[in-house]
Amino acid sequence: MVHKDSVPAAPAAAASPAILGFDGLQGKRIGLSKIGGQYKAFLFLAAQYNLKESDFAFVGGDDATADAAFKKNEADAVFRIRALLNPDIAALLTGGGAAFLPLENAPTLHIKNPAYTVTTIPKGTYSVSPLMPGADVTTVQVQRILLARQDVDPEVVSAITEVLMDRRHELAAALPLEFQPVRYLLAHITQEALNAGLNAPLHPGAQLDYQKQEGSFVRRHENSLALAFAVCVFLVFWTAELRRHSAHTQKRHADAYNLKVAGLMEAAYKSESPAAVGTKLLELFAAAVKDLESDKLSGASFHSFHTIWKTAIDTVIARQGSVVSWQPPAAAASPGPKGAKWNLVKYLQPRSNS
Known about the structure:
Blueprint: E1 2-3, E2 29-31, H1 37-47, E3 57-59, H2 63-71, E4 77-78, H3 87-93, E5 98-99, H4 106-112, E6 117-121, E7 137-141, H5 154-166, H6 168-174, H7 180-186, H8 204-215, H9 217-220, H10 222-270, H11 274-293, H12 299-320, H13 330-333, H14 344-348
Parallel strand pairs: 2-3, 2-4
Antiparallel strand pairs: 1-5, 6-7
Helix pairs in contact: 5-8, 6-7, 10-11, 10-12, 11-12
């Protein structure tokens, strides 16, 4: 990070002494302690620009004093390796006096050292109003690896792995306020190091916990199982609704037939030619048989219709005064088994007890 007024607002300012990139830090005061991994990482980056330790002036014995020097303009830049949303970085950005310095050669750094991977600091990560940073910033990231001695009890390492991987929210809540920066590291804990080509083997305790996670079918497929359960519930309700709708439609159809038969029965009492009414009853019966075959009528509905229809026919015969020449066929009076025909509604409709 550098002071915001050190970053040129336009390419026309390139001739000014403003810091344009990492190589622009040559001869500048860097807020960075000369011990630890951050210092070694800074020297590695400097070497990519043919710069060395003597090309910089380092200020501050630790992060706190280096940050204080930067705020007092006693340092031109600060260098940190921190997780996103780190509160110390956010504090430097407060007031808009600091800006990130992009590492435009990040892909080259990754080629020279695969431990550094290309990433970006997304626009607005530290503030939305005003935007901080105002645009995506290209940079590099490194993975922190937790190492354990080979002779540590596997059960102990397994317990530590289980807490870090599965109970990070509880762990974050248990951390005191003075360890706030560590909470942001918890969000980035992954198992990716298994495929990172490390020289050190995976500890048997960590392997034990990973095997437990991979061995649980429900855990590995929890999203798929949840989706399948939701689909099954939907199908059950859909099937029940389809059955209800089918039964309701068949009942309305049967009611219409029964009303027609009742009307013809009344007409038989009033008509001077009951034979004509009997002909209409026969036509109505034939139509009901066809509807039974096409599943527009259920077996129970047809049985109810046939009872009323038989009463109407008897009424016509009584009104005519003699046995008429036409008689309903035996097959029509009691329809036999229907031919085999696949029909979804037939299988979904309620079964008759008759």
